[in-house]
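Dear all,

This email documents one entry for the complex benchmark we are building for the journal club exercise. For each entry we list the sequence lines for every component of the assembly. Then comes the predicted three-dimensional structure of the complex as a token string, followed by one or two observations. Please use this as the template for your own entries, and keep the labels exactly as they appear.
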Amino acid sequence: MRQSETTQGRDEDQLVAAAQRGDVDAYNQLVLLYQQMAYNVAYRVLGNQDAAMDATQDAFLRGFKGLSRFRGGSFRAWILRITTNCSYDQLRYKQRRPSTPIDDLVEEDEHSTLLQSEEEEPEDHLQRQELGAVLQKGMQSLPEDQRITLILSDVEGLNYEEIAQATMVSLGTVKSRLSRARAKMRDYIQAQRELDGDQGRL
Amino acid sequence: MVKVKEKRNHRFAQNNLSAYLDNELSEKDTLRVRAHLDGCHVCRQDLAALRATAQALSELPRMPLPRSFAIPRQAVVEQRQVRRLDRGFAALRTASVAVTITLVMLLSGDQLLARDIIPTPMLRTAREYDVVAMEEPDMFALELDSPQPEAAQKPADEKSAEAESLTAATEVEVEALALPESAPPDTDVGEELTPEEIAARAAAPPGLGDSEAPRELHPLDEPAPVPDDEAVLVTALPEEDITPEEIAAAARTQEQSAPAEEAIPERVAAPEPTDQVDPVRAALRQAMAVLTGVAMVVFGGLVWLGKKRRL
């Protein structure tokens, strides 16, 4: 279930080294490798596609500018850390101008983007949409540090070591944050289910 | 005893279910949790719920990428441009600080002059001071880079013309900088003195009476006349028709300027302050005018670059 360590290995190191010498093409190969994950993390933190796009763009630009400060380790964790910071910047920016309440956007986005696959029953599709919205809202209710830990671990499948690098905390902190985040999510989902009287999959 | 141990195991399991789920526990801890799970229904349920939660999160759909986030080559070029802009901006910022400090210094210098030697010695006598100042170079006058020494060398017949230009410059400056302090101060002391007193004072040799007060001058002050400048004063401009009153007034201000520097501006009088400006102040004004121009250019550049940088 959990993704193995970066498979690119040596290739990635070479790309990073080339990018650090100012090779844009090499850096862009790294972007191609991680943009999906970075964008997804930003979206899960922010719950809004436009904001996630801005955060991701900002993150990769910042990453290129700050590449000289990358001192080895997991590049993925490093770029995800920048993405996380950019996402929080966006979040604070949005909170300062609450013209678009994030809660409203969540459901809208979920409905519009969760495309129904052909073999899926319409009812299942609806249920999946609702579950996605509930999960997103539940994550939004978590404290920031727990939220990002949960996203990196359960949504993106990073291991504890990488999460520790990406969030700049110790393994023990990752462990306890994740434990608390999961427990809260579990309670949130259960409460939501009772509220709706719904016989969902959970 | 067994119950206490079970409670402790339960708490341990509850705290570590999440890590157990991820196989992130040590072998010993894993065995401990597993042993407890076998006998604890609650913990088994909680573990199942946690697993379902994590599973549901991992099944959240990936958001389709709206576009590629690859960095355009142009951005790299732009970044270099931005770096150059940044450097220009930093230089301009330093320049603006320097200009501002200098302007403030000049302004306060002008203000000190306006307050301390308000009887701004009449132009002609001021010129004579300058001759003395030339012989005993005044550090500050040199530092100011003022046209003062040149002015002192100019022949006497040019003086009236220059006085006009200086006055004009002063008026422009006064308008531009809106300095209320540069307006003429009260002239009560001058009115209090009878013509006899003035004549008497002028006749009195320097070094007596008031003039025994310390002669060191404020840095911004007019260069101090050495005792024997009385001769220069009288002899330097023989062809000009100087009335005794003028000489007397000049001598008096010369005597008073030394005590006046002890911040008693009321004691000092300005005979005709508006149309007579002493060269130090005139130089200050000129420097300020030039610096104001420079400052405008610098600030303008700063605003322009700042806008360009933000784009």
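Observations: The mean pLDDT of chain B is 67. Chain B has two domains: 2-44, 92-298.
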